[in-house]
Structure formats: structure tokens, C-alpha cells
Design brief:
This protein is of the alpha/beta class. It is built from ten helices and 14 strands. The protein has helices at residues 36-45, 62-93, 107-120, 140-147, 166-175, 249-261, 274-294, 307-316, 333-342, 350-353, and strands at 23-24, 27-28, 98-103, 125-130, 132-133, 137-138, 155-158, 185-189, 197-200, 236-237, 303-305, 319-324, 346-348, 358-362. The protein has a six-stranded parallel beta sheet, sandwiched between helices. α2 crosses α6 (249-261), α3 packs across α6 (249-261) and α8 (307-316) runs parallel beside α9 (333-342). The longest helix is centred in the first third of the chain and has 32 residues, at 62-93. It is globular, with a radius of gyration of 19 Å. The chain starts with 22 loop residues before the first strand and ends with a strand.
Length: 366
Amino acid sequence: MGDTYDSIASPATLGSYAEYDVTLLLKRVDIQPTDTATREEAIQSGRRHYSEMFSAEMAPTREYMELFAKAMATGGPRMGAETARLALAIVQSVEGPITLVSLVRAGVPFGILLKRAIALLGRDVGHYGLSIIRDKGVDDEAMRHILARRPVESIVFVDSWTGKGAIANQLEKSFKDYSDRPARLVVLADPCGCAWLAASGDDWLIPSGMLGCTVSGLISRSILNAALVGPGDFHACVQWDNLAEHDISRSFVDGMWNDVSTVIATEIPSVWSIETRRAHRDAAAAAVAWVMGEDAVTNINRVKPGIAEATRAILRRVPEKVYVSSPTDPELAALMYLIDNKGVPYVVSPRKIAPYRAVTLIRHVS
């Protein structure tokens, strides 16, 4: 593999995070969102790729933010402890300078916490956020930018959770363009057993998974549209400045940092064995296959497993139904709020969807 890279693009001031926490390698654009029904029809008909369009984001309601506060009270300490364990494991496993590359958007808040923890442990650490898109790959211009400054051997990719493993598989495929080594992906929760390193395979309510741009630096999902992204450009995004008064991105990572920093001296490194990964991979595949068989689904992309993915599918897609482990599970309170609010049917089936606690099925649009 070659080891010299150059990039035309340069990072702009973007998002609402502090500059020392992350460098977001994205191109800011101003375009109109596509309404959900039109977007869904375009995706399922194959006329347009999902990354060419994006949906409008709305301010979360007061009731929903109350559920978020409860999730922080119960899940915050767990996220803090597990972040500390993962930082210790990365420091133990990676030699030389460490470069965290967070997958936009969900990986970035977690990546910021990892970056702070690794720096606290005395290691040279850099942190970037870049786009990766299913079927399209990682943003090559962003990777070139990083590799002009940091060694490829030091890269650890960061996301908060895995769903079916589609992005993890895409990352593995894309990284072959830059290294003969397998891509190292670290996540908090890896129910499908696809990550190099994870704190657990539990499908649990990671608080940041409940929200969109207001916990992700006010940026949209990444956009890859030929009309907006040309040669030498990073993948694009929209910045939702109109939601600035609802933005908790900085307060979230600052609050979570207290949970990380107070335990890091007493935690031990996470271990994510091949055997554990394999068991989760088999169970997750069986759960997805059961949903597809139950509903005669031929397109696996309509199946969105895991609490966070199931939640986001309701927020920005057209859901047909949701499978849940228990409607009274406190970890599913926010999801059940959305289900009730939007009138989405749900089915209780804990054993069939395990290791997931929720799976959203996207409605087929003819």
C-alpha cells in the first residue's frame, strides 16, 4: 500500500463542539431537506441512494427530553465506566500515536470522550470525524487528509454501537484501500459481534442514541450527492443552526466526562474475545433472519435492529412495525414514547429478536 497522501480539501469551522475535541472532515452545504415519504419512495425504488438526500430534524419535545434525562441518570454512569475501560484497552493495544476516527454522526460524542480519556492516560491522540456510507464507502478525501498527518497503523475507528453490521462490513472493505491490516472498530455496544473491540454485546440505551443533531454537534447525517460533492471535496452535511437553542452537544460530553474521569483510575481494560463476537454474530443473524421471514422481507435494509437504530428509524423513516422485548422495559421508554406518539404498531417477541431489545421494520413502499 502507498504511504503518501495529499488532500485538496481542508477542514472548516463546523458544528458546535470545541475545536480541541474533534476535527470534523465534512463540507458544509445549504440545501432543502426531502420530505420523509418522498425520500422513502426514492430509496426503495432505487431511483436515489439514501445518502443523496436527508430529512429535516425537529426539536425534541419536553416529554422526550425528560426521558433523555432519565436515560442519562441510569445509562450515564455505565457509559462513563465502559468508555474508561475501552480507553484503557486501546492504550494497551495500540503502539505509538493513537488516531481516533469517529464515524459521523453517532461515533463523534463517544469519540470525544475516548480522546479525552486517552490523553489523560498520557498518550499522543488525535481525533477526526468522517463520513462512511453504506454501498459507497469511507470518505476517501477525508482519509487522505488524515493519512497526510497521522500513521495508518495508529488508526482506530469509533462508533457508538453496531446494528446488523452493515457499516462495520463497509468499513472493513473500504479500509483495504489504505492498509493491509484489518480495520479496528471500537464501540460501546456490539450486539452483532462485528467490532474489533467493544465494552459488551448488550443492546442497551446509550443516551446519545436517543437524539440526532442536538447531541451530535448540530450536523446532519452525511450527504454524498454529485451536485454538492465534487473532486477534492469532503462528503457534505447541513448544519442545523435553527436548533441551536436545543443543542446539548457540549454539555453532554462535558457531563459524561465527569463519569469517565472519576473511574478511569480504578477500571480495567475491556476484553472482547473472538468467541464472544462469534456467539453474538450468530444470534444477531438469526434474529434478523426471523424478522425477514416473519414479514416476507426481501430487502435486509428494511430491518433496523437495536434500540438506537430502531429509534432513529422511527424518527426519520416510515416504520411499518416495531418488535420489542417488553413494552415496560425502562430501556425502551423513549422508543415506546415514539411508537405511541406516531401510532406505530408493535409486537412483543423477546426471544425471537434476542440479542436485540428492539427491531424496527421499515414499511415497503411500492
